[in-house]
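I had to read the description of the data format several times before I understood it. In essence, backbone conformation is discretised, so a fold becomes a row of integers matching the chain in length. I therefore recommend that a typical entry be quoted early in the introduction. For illustration, here is how one protein appears when written out as sequence plus structure tokens.

***
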Amino acid sequence: MEKEKIQGHDHGSRPPSIRVVGIGPGDSSLLTPQAREALQEAEVVVGYGLYLSQVEFLLEGKETFTSGMRREIDRAQKAIDLALEGKRVAVVSGGDPGIYGMAGLILEMLEPYDLTLEVVPGITAANAASALLGAPLMHDFAVISLSDLLTPWEVIEKRLKAAGEGDFILVIYNPASRKRRWQIERTREILLEYRQGKTPVGIVKNSFREDQEVVICTLENMLENSVDMSTTLVIGNSQTYRRGNHIITPRGYKIPVE
């Protein structure tokens, strides 16, 4: 059987119609050179208002289009419409565009159109939180969003139980909001069925931004801390431990003892 070679960013003589650009946690120092270049080359930049404000220093003289939360389809369609006009379009996505970001939606919506797309990776919240906590993700881990806006809670709960039974380190995105807290409470209940209350938990809010907060606690008392939509939780597995201000999950190396 003949194999098809796929090169994601090789569009032949055609430049990408749309670039979906991951801007990382929001600090300009963590914006990749490729992301900077994509934004500098764009004629129009589309994105959620908060994310556009984080790259405002690159948007001078550019046309911008912004919309609020839960308007992702509107932003994707606007990007497509602008690309059909022949404009160089960049869509800004927080973190990495392929991880709970805009890349998937735009690719789905692009199917009827003769347009090309390039995904520019960024540092996702799991990477940022892990760096601030030390080395909690040194072994197998799962990333789960607690937002049941697009995924039924029954499915999320099944995944939490599977991760607990499999002894995965867990990274939790979208843990709670002002109107939605019972999901994080239920998550704690589920995980306490599989691991000890003293399991280390890292709570990282607004990673690498001016209002950054980093707390290390335990699974047993994690709900005593402030958690919102800008928070990433890292919950250790059965081997994870705390040492000072770091959370460490051993990779399994046999370290010589002198």
Notes: The CA atoms of residues 215 and 225 lie 8 Å apart. Helices lie at 33-41, 49-54, 72-84, 103-109, 125-133, 153-165, 182-191.
